[in-house]
Amino acid sequence: MDAMNRWSILAPLLLLGACSGSGDAGDTAAQPVALVKLAPATQGAAPRQLTVYGAAEPGPAGKMSLAAPAESKVVAIDAPPGTAVRAGQTVVRLAPSAVTRADAAKAASDAAAADKALARALRLRSDGLSSDADVEAARAAAASANALKASFSDRTGGLTLRAPAAGIVDAVPVVIGDLLQPGAAVASVTRTGDVRVKFGIDPDGARSVRPGMRLHIAGVGSRPPIDALVESVSVAVDAQTRLASLYARLPAGSGIVAGEALTATVELPDTSAGISVPYAALLDDAGQPYVFAVAGGVAHRRNVTVAPSSGDRVTITQGLRAGDRVVVEGGTALEDGMKVRTR
User: Fold this and answer.
1) At what angle do helices 132-157 and 98-126 cross, to 10 degrees?
2) Is residue 341 within a helix (H) or strand (E), and if so which, with residue range?
3) How far, rounded to the nearest angstrom, does the alpha carbon of residue 25 sit from its chain's CA centroid?
4) 43 vs 333: CA distance, rounded Å
5) Residue 280: enclosing H or E segment and its boundaries?
6) Lowest mean pLDDT among 160-169, 227-236, 241-250, 308-317
7) If 0-12 CB within 10 Å is exposed, 13-18 middle and 19+ buried, where does residue 132 land?
8) Dihedral, 55, 58, 64, 66 alpha carbons, nearest 10
9) Distance of alpha carbon 97 from alpha carbon 156, whole angstroms
10) pLDDT for 27-49, tens place per residue?
11) Which H or E element spans position 266?
């Protein structure tokens, strides 16, 4: 009985010891393994994406101005700013001023008198009572007087100002009752389809932009984004904005009108040396950028030097080599030297 009692006491202890020994061996063998996603570091710097802001404006031939042909008064504004007009549609109506009416009447009277003087000179010449020079002088005077009369007739007959082509009335800087001098601006119309965009751009960035490069103009409201081509670049800096200027020609049917504010992005080629990695690979430790590079199933921290970049890739100038595989997912849970397996 004593032997049996001793065995009944020792058996559970031996089993407990065996279980404890098995657990210690398992703990010793188990090591942390992180699940990560990798991407290769590629040769060549990442392109930079620059955001620019600007507004649509009439193209070089898109701005059409309407001016007063003679001294006149504004009697009606048929197409106020913002009105879409067709070619030949009335925009503003003018009436001749008292001075214009008097000048036109005088021009008509002078022309009639000059015509009579020419007819008399011709009769006298046929009778031998005047010279050829007298006739030519009368002829020149009549021609001048009739030209002035025709000019007043054209000007007073053109006081109904019409749109030269289809477009949008963008300015009418007059009000009914204004007395206008000859040549005074009455209205301006932007031709439909002839619109370009002027963007302000950082002067350093402007030096990297070339005509023909593609711009991605953000959509507004229900209008989708639009791709356009850079038409020209001016590196002259505006005194107020401190920005250079970038011009883009809009594609036909863009729906963008003069005066509309726009935002666009342009991708700048980066010619600096370096390699690029996805932006998701970049981590930060108190201002020190770093990545985890994986070799032989182990993650190694690499402190890196980063060049100015934008978009979804970043340029690394020091700390990596082309072909290194870097962690782009799961890096925040890693430590230097930790084993990993890939997704």
Assistant:
1) 160
2) strand 339-342
3) 67
4) 27
5) none
6) 308-317
7) exposed
8) 10
9) 10
10) 444 567 889 999 998 887 666 77
11) strand 261-268
